[in-house]
Amino acid sequence: MQKLTNFSEKELEDHIVTALTANGYQQGNPADFDKIQAIDSHFFWQFLHNSQQTALDTIAKHNPDWQKTIIHRLNNTIKKYGILHILKKGLDVDNANLTFLYPKPLASSSQIARDNYRQNIFTVTRQVRYSQHNGNSVDLVIFLNGLAIITLELKSTHKNQTARFNAIEQYKKDRSLDDPLFNFARAIVHFTLDNQEAYMTTRLNGANTFFLPFNKGNHGNAGNPPNPNSFNTEYLWNEVLQPDSLVNLISHFVRLGCDNPDIKKPNLGDMTLYFPRYHQMSVVRRLVQDVAGNGVGKRYLIQHSAGSGKSNSITWLAYQLIEAYPHSEQAKGAKGLEQPLYDSVIVVTDRKILDKQLKDNIKQFSEVKGIIAHAERSKDLRNALENGKKIIITTIQKFPFILDDIGEMADKNFAIIIDEAHSSQSGMAHDGMNTALGIDTDNEKDGDMDDNQDRIIKAMESRKMRGNGSYFAFTATPKDSTLEKFGEKQADGRFTPFDLYSMKQAIEEGFILDVVRNYTTFKSYYEIQKSVENDPAFDSNKAQKALKAYVERQQQTIDVKAEIMLDHFISNIFAKKRLKGHAKAMIVTQNIEMAIRYYQAINRLLEQKGNPFKAMIAFSGEKIVDGIGYTESQINGFEDSKTKEKFDSDDYRILVVANKYLTGFDQPKLTAMYVDKKLRDVLAVQTLSRLNRSANKYDKKTEDLFVLDFFNELKHIKSAFDKYFTVTTLSQATDVNVLSDIKTELEAVGVYEPHEIIDYAEAYFGGASMETLQGKINILAERFNHELELSDDAKIEFKMQAKQFVKLYSRLASIMPFNKIEWERLFWLLKALIPELNIRTQEDDDIDDLLESIDLNTYAIERTALGSKITLDEKEAVIDPSNPNVIGVHTEAKTNNLDKIIADFNERWFKSWHITPEEQRMKFINLAQRIYDHPDFQQKYLTTKDEQHRNLEFEKLVKDIIVEDRKKEIDFYKLFIQDEAFQLAFLSNLRQVVDKKSLSDLSK
Asked: How far apart are CA 804 and CA 531, in angstroms?
C-alpha cells in the first residue's frame, strides 16, 4: 500500500532535496561537515584536486602540512573579508591563488572558461549538526565547492508551524553566533520557508535579527500566488537555487560593503551584506533576458513602489546590461554573438537629490575600477563615451547642457535607465537626449549640404526614441504620458507596466508604512469685509479664488495654523519621544513666500517656548518677501548642500518646504506632515510618501505617522492613492489627430500665415541669428497683441491652445509612428511666440484693486476629519490619456457685484461653522476679558517667563471659565472637552486675542 502524506516538514525537505539533486546538485553527507571551518571537507578537497591540482602541488612543495595551511588561510581570510571575497577573488596561499568559484562564461568566453565552469560542485546536505556545544542541526545547507553559502530552516503550515514566525524564532533563539556557520558573512544568506512563504536575512543577530520577505507577490499583494501543481514556494529551489541562478546571484547581485561614510577603514562587522529581494532579482533578470532576445530599441516601464529598493535595482540592472549579449544575430542592434549589445549604459535621474545617492551606490557595487563616469559638466558625457566608460551617471537637469557638445554617436547602442520617469522626460530635455544619441551630423555628399527640409526631418526623428537606444523607466507613480511612452501596448489597446511591485505589497511586507492610516483634515473659515465705496462687477469664480488665495497668505492666517502645527508636534510627537526621541516633521506650503512666512512664524513660536529644537527651510533660488531678499542658505545659516545632513541631526526637528524635497527625499525619521498646499494625483502620493520610509532602528510604526491637512479633502487624497495602490494601466493611446484640430483652430485666428510658418522654420533650421528670429516673432506678436483687436477671451483661448499644441506635440512626437512636417514647423514657431503673447485683462487689474480693498475680519479653523483611515481600492487602476479635446474659455461667466461676492465668500467659507462670525468674535472678546479679570492672570500667566508653564496656565484659565459656564453653554462645553483637535484650534485662536496689547483694540 502506498504511503500517505502527513504534510510534514520532513516531506517538504525530501521534495526539495529530490528536486535539487535532479538539477545539477549532489547530496552531501552530514558527517563530512567541519563545524569549525563551516565546510564540507569531502567536496572541498575533491573540488580543489579536480580543478587545481597544479596549484595544490605548488603549495605542497614548500609546505609539508599544506592542507592545514590552506584551511588556516581560508579561515583567517573569511573572518577578515567574508565568504564573498573568497568566491569572487579566490584564496592566496604562498605563491598560488586558489579559485573557489568559476563564473558563468559569457558569449565571448573561451572554451577553457566553459570547461572550468563545469568544475563547480553544488551540494545540498540535510540535518547538518553545526554546533560544537550541542546536537542542534539546521534543516538544509547549500554548499558551493565545499563552502557553506546558504542555510535553510523549513516548516509546514499543516502542522501550525510557519516560516514567518516559528522558523524565524528558531534562528533568533537557537542559532548561536559562536558557531562558525552563523558568523556574519560566513554564509551569504539564511532562508526560512514553509509551503506558503519564504523569508531571508544576511545577518543573524539573536533577538535583533531582521528577516525580509522573499516572496513573489500575489497580484499586487504580499505572499505568493497559488500554485496549482506544487508548493507556493517551489520557485526557491526550482529557480533561485538552481546552479546557474546561484552563480549569477553571487557574481552580479550579492554585495558586501559599508554604507557609513564616517567609517574610513571598516571592519567586517561594520559592513552590510546585500542579497536581492525576489522582485529585484526578477525584474533585472527579466529585463536582461528580454533585451537578449529582442535586441536594442524597446521601451520598458517598471512600476516599483517606494520601498522597493529602486536604487539597488537600477544599480544591478546597469551592471548586467553591460554584459548583455544577444541570443541570436537577428536581435535588433546585434553586432555579433560575442559582442555586448550596448556600448554604454546611461543612468538619468529626475531629481538632483538622487544624483549623489545613485552615484555612490553604483560605485559601491563596482568590482572593476574605471568603468564609471559621472557627467557633471557639459563635456563629461562626450569624454566618458570616447574614453570607453561603460556606465555614465547624469541628471535630467544637466542633460540639456551636456548635449550641446556631443558629436555623432548614431553608430553606438545605448541603454538609458531613467529613474522616476515623469514629465521631465516629456518635452525638450528628452528631445535633446535623443538628438545626442541618434541624430547624424551634417555630412557633405557630392559637395552639397543637406537642405533645411532635411534638417527639419532629422530634428523630428531625433525626438523619436531612436532604434539605437533601449529605455528603462522606473517609477512608483506612472502618469498617462509615462504609460504611453514606456508601457507595453496590449492587444486591447491598453498600456501596462513591464514589471510591478505595488505600493500595497510594499506596505504589507513592511518596507514602507501606510501614510493614509492617520489622516486629519482641518477646514479654514474666513470672514472678510469691504473697505471701498465703489461696487464693480467681477467674474465670481475668479474673484472667489483670488480672495481665498489672499486670505491664505496673510500673516494672521499663517500664524494661527503655525501655532496649531507646532503645538501638535510638541505635544503629540516631540514630548512623547516618538521614534525613540528622534521624530521629525515637514511643513508643506503653497509657495516659497508662504514657506518663508511659516518658517518665521514657527521660529517666533519656538523662541517663545525656549527653543526646545530648531526649524529649517528649503527652497531654490532667491525670493523677495516684504521687500527683503531671502535664500535658503542665508536663512538657515549654512550652505544648501548641508541641509539634508543638518536636518538628520537631533538639533533640527521641523523642515518647511514649498516644492523642494517633496520627491526623492529619504529621511526615515520623518513621522509628521503638516500640509497647507493643494495636492493632487502624483504630487499627493509623492509628497505624503516622504513619511512612509520604515525605520526599524527607531521602532517606527504606522501608528507613529500623522498627517494634518489644512487644504485638501479626504476624497481627493484617496483618489490620488487609489491610482497607484496596485497596478496602473492606460486605457488607450492619445489621439494624435487632436493636433490637427488645434492647428486648425489656431490658424483661424489669423495671427500668422502659412508662408510665415515656413519662413520662420527655414530661418531657424538654417542657423539664423537670434536677432533675425526675434524680428519675425515681433511681427506676429504685434499682430496678436494689437492689430487684430482680439477680445480678452479670444487672446486667452489662442494662447491656451498654443500651449496645448506645444505640450502635446513634444510628448507625442517621440512615439508617433509617422512624421508630419507641418506640425514640426508650427511647434518651433509657437515655442518662440508664446512668451510674447500678452493677455492680461482689465479684470485682472480690477481684482488686484479688490484685494487691496478688503480686510480679513475673522479667521478660524475647524477639524473636519480626525485620524481617519483612508481605505484604498485594490482594483487595477485604469487612467485615461490626457484630455484630447481642444481647450477653450468660451463659457458663460457668472458675474456679480463686489458686495455679493464678499457675502458669498463669507457664507461659503463659514458654512457648517456652529456660530456666526460676529458671535464667534464676541465670544473670543468676552472670554478674553474674563481671562484678564481672572485673579491668577497677572501672576501665573502674564509675568511667567517659562513658555511651557505659560501654556499650561493659559489652558487651565480657559478650562476654569468654560467649566463654570458649562450649564449655559452645554454644547460648546461638550465639543471643547471631547474634541482634542477643536480644543487645540480654539485655544490657539483665543490666545492670539488675549496676547493683543489691549482689549480696546479688539472692540473697535
From this structure: 40
Cell of 393: 551617471
The backbone torsions φ and ψ at residue 201, rounded to the nearest 5 degrees and listed phi first, read: -150, 155
Distances (CA, A) of 719 to 231, 304, 305, 684: 37, 19, 17, 10
Exposure of 166 in the CB half-sphere (CA atoms within 13 A) = 14
Q: Strands of 519-530's sheet, edge to edge?
A: 614-618, 652-657, 584-589, 670-676, 706-709, 519-530, 854-868
Residues 314 and 419 sit within 8 Å (Cβ to Cβ): yes
Strand residues in 836-976 grouped as ranges (E): 854-868, 877-879, 895-897
The predicted-structure confidence for 655-668, as pLDDT tens digits, reads as follows 999 988 887 688 89
**Helix, strand, coil % (nearest 5) of the chain?**
45, 20, 35
Cα separation of 743 and 111, whole Å?
63
Residue in the structure block whose three cell numbers are 507556493: 232
Q: Tell me: the pLDDT tens digits for 46-101?
A: 999 999 999 999 998 888 899 999 999 999 999 999 999 999 999 999 888 999 99
Task: Provide φ and ψ at 447, rounded to 5°.
Answer: 80, -5
**For residue range 286-296, what is the model confidence (pLDDT) as tens digits?**
999 999 999 99
Amino acid code (one letter) for 552 = E
CA 344 to each of CA 320, 378, 391, 778, 868: distance values in angstroms, whole numbers, following the listed order: 12, 18, 6, 44, 49
SS3 627: coil
* Amino acid letter for position 820: K
Tens digits of per-residue pLDDT, 962-973? 777 776 777 677
Using the CB atoms, write b or e for 514-534: b if 16+ within 10 Å. bbbbbbbbbbbbbbbebeeee
E strand or H helix that includes residue 128: strand 122-129
The pLDDT > 70 percentage for the chain reads 74
672-690, pLDDT tens digit by residue?
A: 999 989 888 888 888 888 8
Measured between alpha carbons, how far is 351 from 930 in angstroms, rounded to an integer?
55
Q: How far apart are CA 77 and CA 791, in angstroms?
A: 82
Q: How far apart are CA 151 and CA 143, in angstroms?
A: 9
Radius of gyration over every alpha carbon of the chain, rounded to an integer in angstroms: 34
Cell of 75: 579561515
Region at 24 (left for phi over 0; alpha for psi -120 to 50; beta for the rest): left
Q: Can you tell me the distance from the alpha carbon of 555 to that of 1, in angstroms, rounded to the nearest whole number?
A: 87
Q: Give DSSP secondary structure letters for 75-119.
A: HHHHHHH-HHHHHHH-EEETTEEE-S-PPPPPTT--HHHHHHHTT
Main-chain dihedrals φ then ψ at residue 166, nearest 5 degrees? -65, -45
Whether residue 866 contacts residue 719, with contact meaning beta carbons closer than 8 Å, is answered with no
Q: Please give the Cα distance from 637 to 616 (Å, whole number).
A: 9
Mean pLDDT of 551-559: 71
In the numeric block, the cell 516629456 is attached to 426
Q: What is the pTM of this model?
A: 0.75
The three cell numbers of residue 771 are: 536677432
Give residue 580's identity as a one-letter amino acid code: K
Highest mean pLDDT, choosing among 183-192, 363-372, 607-616, 907-916: 183-192
Task: Please tell me the distance from the alpha carbon of residue 476 to that of residue 470, in angstroms, as a whole number.
Answer: 20
| Amino acid, single-letter form, for residue 917 | P
Between 66-81 and 53-62, two packed helices, what is the crossing angle to 10 degrees?
A: 110
**Hey, is 520 helix, strand or coil?**
strand
Distance of CA 147 to the CA centre of its chain: 39
Query: 495-496 and 488-489: which strand pairing?
Result: antiparallel
Rounded Cα distance between 127 and 600, Å, is 66
Q: pLDDT-based confidence at 855, cuts 50/70/90?
A: low
Residue 57's Cβ-count burial label (10 Å; 0-12, 13-18, 19+) is: exposed
**Angle value at C-alpha 10, between 7 and 14, nearest 5 degrees:** 105
**Poorest-confidence range of 322-331, 416-425, 542-551, 738-747?**
542-551
